[in-house]
Design a protein that fits this description.
The chain contains six helices and two strands, in the order αββααααα. The protein has one domain. 77% of the residues lie in helices and 4% in strands. A hairpin with a 2-residue loop joins strand 1 and strand 2. Strands 1-2 form a two-stranded antiparallel sheet. By secondary structure, the protein is mostly helical.
Length: 189
């Protein structure tokens, strides 16, 4: 579960370094997807969902690594229709991956009869889903001048959702450590 936390840390938190016209994320997303892949491998016996999700994580690892190298070399573009469509597809795949991992955590809860904080993870995921939908819809609907304010508001919502997800996975990680240590957080029925 620790790999899930650190994977999402790299995926959802961006610290950019700007030099002239080039911007580089110093917490590359592909590292986050690689960590998720390791976490899925570690826990694949806990839930079949984890092994089913791996191909999507491999794809996102490769895709985000290409984007990161492109940004490093200054050859990736933004703002055109293709980049917007690719961004939309990668957002959908990323949401699917995180939803699948949360489903796997829910199966682990049932299997071990322990609270691993999947409810908190699910709530955070829903906040991110709403923020992403609002972001894409408003980008397509609003004129460019009105987008600036909306971008700030949606950005705040995305930040809140990302932090909620990280906190939820941190708590889940601590609960899983307790399960492994034998000091189980039993689900009340």
């Amino acid at each position: 579960m620790g790999k899930f936390f650190w994977g999402f840390f790299f995926i959802y938190l961006n610290f950019n370094l700007s030099i002239n016209a080039h911007t580089l994320n110093v917490l590359p997303e592909f590292v986050g997807y690689f960590l998720l892949l390791q976490g899925l491998r570690e826990l694949e016996e806990e839930s079949g969902v984890f092994s089913d999700t791996r191909p999507f994580v491999v794809g996102m690892t490769v895709y985000t690594a290409i984007l990161w190298v492109g940004a490093l070399l200054g050859v990736t573009g933004t703002g055109n229709l293709l980049s917007i469509l690719l961004s939309l597809v990668s957002t959908v795949v990323s949401l699917y991956i995180s939803w699948s991992i949360i489903q796997g955590v829910q199966e682990m809860e049932e299997r071990h009869q322990a609270d691993l904080n999947s409810a908190g993870m699910s709530l955070a995921w829903k906040v991110l889903l709403v923020a992403d939908i609002v972001s894409y819809v408003l980008t397509l609907v609003l004129p460019v001048a009105a987008v600036a304010l909306v971008v700030v508001l949606v950005g705040i919502l995305l930040l809140v959702g990302s932090l909620m997800l990280l906190v939820a996975f941190w708590r889940g990680k601590k609960c899983w450590e307790a399960v492994q240590a034998g000091t189980i957080h039993v689900i009340d029925e």
